[in-house]
Amino acid sequence: MTNHTFLLALDDSEATLEKVGGKGQATAQMAALNLSLPPGFYLTTAAYRHFVKTNQLHGKISDLLKQGEGTGAEIRALFAAGEMPAEIVALVQDAYAALGSGKPAVAVRSSATAEDLPGMSFAGQQDTYLNVQGSDHLIPAV
Length: 142
Description:
With 142 residues, this protein is mainly alpha-helical.
């Protein structure tokens, strides 16, 4: 797996807080210590920004946030209705295929750049998907 703007290997030294979030950075640190980790990869914050830009979500999210309370469900619906850019789909499918033959079970976890920081926690605000098998299930989980 090569270093790409939208996707990095688990042991990539470019897996920083800014690029892969807090959980991602911690995983990269474990990989750097040669700890035994299952195979995997990160989608970067650049991939997230590309999704938002491609689906023209920034303005819509800003408008909803100006309304105040009760916007979480509406913002979630915007993301759910968004279409994953083809180049990101292709990268995820290739990286998933490189994990092994068949349909290996994987976990899809969030890793926000502002989570698990001193004095700040967003535990429980992101979804985790476990035992995802096959790219037809992986892309929607992502």
